[in-house]
Design goal:
Blueprint lengths: L11 H36 L13 H11 L5 E3 L7 E10 L2 E9 L5 E7 L4 H8 L5 E9 L2 E9 L3 E5 L8 E6 L3 H10 E3 L2
Antiparallel strand pairs: 1-9, 2-3, 3-4, 4-8, 5-6, 6-7, 7-8
Length: 196
């Protein structure tokens, strides 16, 4: 016959020693784990490249311009032969503010922003959406673009914008806007060409 196993009571002193020892190991292991995690995080941070300036991957404008030219009701102006330092950061042909729009945004050599937007069915809401940061009209500027010298309506505020409305032989409304100064905006417009 077997007798039931009886456990021997441990003295409170023995139990507290074991608990203290386990607590000590837990705290010590947690500190070691934290130090290891911090060391790994520091190594990761130290090995990451930190360039002096943001490197931008240029966007391919030509395929989007060709598509926009084939689908648009008017000529599409595109920056095809820009000089050194101009970098496209987006090119779209989609509905913007209720109108099917051709839009290209670029970073200038001066690290400012400039954008061209064109729409055949432009509304006042479309123009307002694009020129909201440019404020009220500030007169006109004569700027030479793909159609030759034209009178553009100028706006200046937080951004600068020029608007060229439709006219005889020109079915689209064009807005060029950005944070670039007037010289860079006019240079940009002068470099625009009609997309094939």
């Amino acid at each position: 016959m077997s007798s039931p196993t009886q456990t021997q009571p441990t003295s409170p002193q023995q139990g507290s020693k074991a608990a203290n020892r386990l607590r000590s190991y837990s705290v010590k292991n947690m500190i070691y784990s934290l130090l290891a995690v911090f060391a790994l995080a520091f190594a990761w941070w130290a090995l990451m490249p930190n360039p002096d300036r943001l490197e931008r991957r240029p966007v391919e404008v030509a395929p989007v311009a060709a598509y926009a030219a084939s689908e648009s009701d008017g000529p599409v102006w595109t920056p095809e032969s820009l000089g050194e330092g101009w970098t496209a950061n987006f090119a779209t042909f989609e509905t913007y503010a209720g109108a099917l729009s051709w839009r290209v945004g670029l970073v200038t050599p001066g690290e400012e922003y400039v954008e061209i937007s064109q729409a055949a069915d432009a509304t006042d809401a479309w123009v307002s959406a694009l020129t909201a940061k440019a404020g009220d009209e500030a007169g006109t500027r004569t700027i030479t673009g793909p159609d030759g010298p034209q009178e553009w309506t100028a706006r200046e505020g937080e951004e600068r914008a020029v608007v060229l409305g439709p006219a005889e032989g020109r079915e689209v409304t064009t807005v060029v806007r950005g944070t670039a100064d007037w010289d860079e905006i006019e240079e940009f417009i002068g470099l625009l060409e009609v997309a094939d």
